[in-house]
Write a structure and sequence with these properties.
- It is a single chain.
- By secondary structure, this protein is α/β, with parallel strands linked by helices.
- The protein folds into two domains: 170 residues, Peroxisomal Thiolase, Chain A, domain 1, CATH 3.40.47.10; 154 residues, Thiolase/Chalcone synthase (Peroxisomal Thiolase, Chain A, domain 1, 3-Layer(aba) Sandwich).
- It contains eleven helices and 13 strands.
- The strands form four sheets. The chain has a five-stranded mixed β-sheet with strand order 1-7-6-4-5, with helices on both faces. It has a four-stranded mixed β-sheet with strand order 8-13-12-11, sandwiched between helices.
- A hairpin with a 3-residue loop joins strand 12 and strand 13.
- Helix 3 packs across helix 4 and helix 8 packs across helix 9.
- The radius of gyration is 19 Å and the shape is globular.
- Bound molecules: acetyl coenzyme *A.
- The site of acetyl coenzyme *A has 23 residues, from helix 2, helix 6 and helix 8.
């Protein structure tokens, strides 16, 4: 028996306002047919002007903490994954901490984009397994909508992204490595910075010359995301399949042993391709991209909460998760829910 971590509470929140593909047709020369065929996305939630990333995170976190049967002051660390922070600095984890009213705990912000939640889960697992922390709040939250080019010029990227938040509480548990009780079994984290500019936002940035930000950068659209969609697609399929197999092999888990696959949601076709490559029955993959779009770091905990609410994810189930995103970064994890 030794200390492991387990997911003890789950929460999520999306802003109420829904934008369908038809709403986007009115903003940027696109069609519902194009978006559905290429990505599977039918709608996404976008915030109003007064809502920030930490606001969405707060709602998801409160639910996760209550679901764990804990009070805010029981949390001894926050790991906040986002690519769309409230401000440049400090990290959004500190703003969330203030909103939760908990003082003197450790707070991390991590910047691994679509892979952020699995990096956060792995980080929390390691702190808890070391014995130094007991209840870690891992949050993925994004407000993409305020950083997208919503004119025809931005359509290739802007139709893909939605706002939302998902949170889990991870708590210490003492179990055998092979136990079927709830615990994180393994995680694998990867990155390859030689692809950093295939999916990125360049400005503001200290690598751009004398100014972090100026009018010329805005005129060139450098403050909006730029993506080489085809390169992302090909690498996502390859790397998600690869890392998932690594985690499975480490634990002696066969694909057919897994009860539910919680994959990052960048494109329905990416997940279908991964399913095809690994021979995963499509009904074992819980997809949410149709209604949320790509919510990057929020995607996996948001999907986890929806799967629980839909009765598809139950305590004791064997879950495999994989993600791929900007960096490039990719990761996988296997756990007993
Ligand atoms: N509506 C209508 N037409 C469009 C749109 C749009 N929203 N966007 C692009 N087009 C047009 C293009 O202009 C192009 O027209 P052309 O043939 O006349 O030149 C045509 O559609 C095809 O464009 P492509 O970019 O070649 O389309 P592709 O088949 O590659 O699909 C897509 C694009 C859906 C983005 C795909 O490449 C993809 O899903 N890639 C992965 C994206 C992804 O996963 N991104 C998130 C990563 S996660 C993260 O970390 C943030």
């Amino acid at each position: 028996m030794k200390i492991h971590s387990r997911i003890s509470g789950v929460g999520s929140f999306v802003p109420p306002k829904v934008y369908t593909n038809h709403d986007l047709e009115k903003m940027m020369d696109t069609t519902d047919e194009w978006i559905v065929q290429r990505t599977g996305i039918e709608q996404r939630h976008w915030v109003d002007e007064n809502t920030s990333t930490s606001d969405l995170a707060l709602e998801a976190s409160k639910q996760a903490i209550a679901d764990a049967g804990l009070a805010n002051e029981d949390i001894d660390m926050i790991v906040f994954a986002t690519l769309s922070p409230d401000h440049d600095f400090p990290g959004t984890g500190c703003f969330l901490q203030e909103k939760l009213g908990v003082s003197d705990i450790s707070v991390f912000d991590i910047r691994q984009q679509c892979t952020g939640f699995l990096y956060g889960l792995s980080l929390a697992d390691k702190f808890i397994s070391s014995g130094s922390h007991k209840n870690v709040l891992v949050v993925g939250a994004e407000v993409h909508s305020k950083g997208l080019d919503k004119t025809p010029r931005g359509r290739a990227v802007s139709v893909l992204f939605g706002d939302g938040a998902g949170a889990v509480v991870m708590s210490a548990t003492t179990v055998d490595d092979k136990s079927k009780d709830s615990h994180i079994m393994t995680s694998n984290l990867h990155a390859d910075g030689s692809f950093a500019k295939e999916l990125w936002v360049a400005a503001p940035g200290n690598a751009l010359g004398p100014d972090r930000m100026n009018q010329a950068m805005i005129d060139e659209n450098l403050h909006f995301p730029q993506m080489n969609g085809k390169t992302v697609f090909v690498h996502a399929v390859k790397r998600m399949a690869e890392t998932l197999m690594k985690s499975c092999a480490e634990q002696g888990v066969k694909i057919e042993d897994v009860d539910l696959f919680l994959f990052h949601q960048a494109n329905l076709r990416i997940n279908s391709k991964v399913a095809e490559v690994l021979n995963i029955p499509e009904e074992k993959i819980f997809n949410t991209i149709q209604k949320y779009g790509n919510t990057t770091a929020a995607t996996i905990p948001l999907g986890m909460h929806d799967a629980i609410k839909a009765g598809k994810l139950k305590p004791g189930m064997l879950v495999a998760s994989a993600a791929f995103g900007s960096g490039f970064t990719w990761a996988s994890a296997i756990w007993r829910q």
